[in-house]
Please model this.
Amino acid sequence: MKKNEFVEQLSEYCEFENKGFNLDTQFKSIEGYDSLALMSIIAFVDEKFSMKLTALQLRELKDFKSLISLIGSDKFEND
Amino acid sequence: MINLEGKRILVTGASSGIGKVFSEQAASSGASLILWGRNQERLAETFNSLEGSGHEYQAFDMTNYALAEQHILKAVADGRKINGFVHSAGIERTTPLKASTPEVFKEIFEINVFAAFEIARLLSRKSIVDPAGASFIFLSSVKGKLGDPGKVAYCSSKSALLAGVKAMALELAGKKIRCNCVLPGIVNTPMTEKLFESVPPDAKQKIIEGHPLGLGSPEDVSNLICFLISDQAGWITGSEYIIDGGYSA
Model:
C-alpha cells in the first residue's frame, strides 16, 4: 500500500466527514477524531499490517506521517 | 474459611488471573484441582503453588474438544468423579463494530461460550460427574448486562454465556448439578492490562472512577466462587452474581 492510499483508506474506514487529508494533516484538527476513531485506527492497522497498537501509542501521534513511522515506512510502497 | 474437602474441581484459565487465584484458594481449602490452560510454563507455576495433593494439570488448547474429552476421561479413570467446574478462561477484545466480522465473533465466542458449554456437556455425563452433586461456575462479566463501545462481540459473548447457564441449570438440576454465573467488574488481571492498552487514557480513568470501591482483585472474585462451589451454596442454581465494586449500581 502506498502512503497516500493509506491516508485515504484509513479516513474512509474511520468515516471522517472531511476529505482531502494528507500526510501532514493533524489528527486533532479532524472532526470526528474521538475515542471511537482511535479504536478504529487500532483495528485498521491490525487488519492491514497485523500490528497491535495501543491507545497510549496513538495518543502520542500528531499526524498520519507519525502513524506511518510507527507502523514502519518500510511496510509501504513508494508513492 | 470455606471447606472444600473432597471436592475435585476442573479449572480452565488456571494459569493466570482469577482462575489461578481461585485454584490456589480452593487447594488451601482442601480441594484437588485439575488445571487447564494454554501456557505450559505459567500453568506449571500455578500447579507448583498449590497446597495439598491430588492435583494435576494439562496445558493445551481446550478448543481441541477431542483432546479435552481424553483428558477428562483420563482424570476419572481411577474412579474419582468430578464435582466442580470453573470456567475462568476467556478472551476480551476491543473492536469497533465496523471491524467486528463474523471471524471476530467466532474467536471470542469459541472460548467464552462454546468451550464453556462443551466442557460442561462432557463433565455432566453420569460416568464423569459425582452422583452426589456438583457445582459449575462460569465467569461471565458485568459487561454481559451492560453495553460498552467497541465491545459488541465481547458483551454479547458474556450475555450468551449468562443465558445459556440459566437453561443449563434447569436441565442439570435433576443430576444435582448446580450452575451459576459470576459477573465481575474490572479486576486487576493480565487481561485487564491488555484492555487498558487498547483504550485511551481518559477512558481508562473513567473506567476506574466508575468503580466506587475501586478496581477489584482476583481474590475478591475467588472468594465468591469458593462459596458457590461449596456445599454451603447447596440451594443456589441458575443465579447470577454481580461483583463489581458498585460499577453497575
